[in-house]
Amino acid sequence: MQRVNKNNDKDKRISIRVDPELKEESQELFKSMGMDLSTAITIFLKQSLTDNALPFKPRADNFENIKAKKEVEDGNLKKFNTIEALWNDLND
Predict the structure, then answer these.
(1) Is residue 55 within 8 Å of 44, Cβ to Cβ?
(2) At what angle do helices 37-51 and 20-32 cross, to 10 degrees?
(3) Of 21, 57, 22, 20, the residue nearest 40 (C-alpha)
(4) Could you tell me which of 43, 40, 46 has the C-alpha nearest to residue 23?
(5) Nearest residue to 12 (alpha-carbon basis) of 31, 43, 38
(6) DSSP label at 89?
(7) CA terminus-to-terminus distance, the chain
(8) How does residue 23 score in pLDDT terms, banded at 50, 70 and 90?
(9) Rounded to an integer, what distance in angstroms lies between the CA atom of residue 45 and that of residue 26?
(10) Which residue in 9, 37, 38, 73 is a FRET match for 47, CA 20 to 30 A apart?
(11) pTM, whole model, 2 decimals?
(12) Are 77 and 71 in contact (CB under 8 A)?
């Protein structure tokens, strides 16, 4: 009896390590989009080859941006009644 290979001979397995929570959240996201994690990773790889680059622009936030985002998330926002008051605060 001939053994049937369920995997296409062209398919190769990739093994990666990721945080379990990241994997679970990603699986949920892609499931809501009608695909599994393997399909999403394949799309990422194919788009990388098409673009000859990452399919998004990686960037690192500088310290001031990180600090500003944290202030917004914490609700620590300054309010100004006039443009002049804002301008004075910016220039202090």
Answers:
(1) yes
(2) 80
(3) 22
(4) 40
(5) 38
(6) H
(7) 83
(8) very high
(9) 16
(10) 9
(11) 0.55
(12) yes
Spatial contact of 55 and 47, defined as CB atoms under 8 Å apart: yes
Cα–chain center distance at 33 = 15
Count other Cβ atoms within 10 Å, centred on residue 11: 11
Structure tokens at 46: 């194919």
Read off the amino acid at residue 91. N
> DSSP characters for 19-81?
-HHHHHHHHHHHHHTT--HHHHHHHHHHHHHHHTS-SS------HHHHHHHHHHHHT-----S
Looking at residue 13, its amino acid is R
Task: Collect all residues with Cβ–Cβ distance below 8 Å to 33 and sequence separation of at least 6.
Answer: 40
User: Six-digit token pair at 31?
Assistant: 């499931």
